Amino acid sequence: MMNEVDVQVVSRVGAILGEGPIWDAEAQCLWWVDILGKALHRFEPAPDSPNRETRWALAIEPGAVAPCADPRRGVVLVTPEGFARLHPGSGQQALLAEVERDNAATRMNDGKCDSRGRFWAGTMARDESPGAGGFYVLEIDGRARQVLRDVGISNGLGWSPDDSLMYYVDSHTGAVDVFDFDAAAGEITHRRHLVEIPEADGIPDGLCVDSDGFVWVALWEGGAIHRYSPDGRLDGKIELPVTHPTSVAFGGPELRDLYITTARCALTEAQISEQPDAGALFRCRPGPAGMGPNVYRG
Ligand code: BGC
Ligand code: CA
Question: What is the average pLDDT across 65-89?
Answer without folding.
Answer: 96
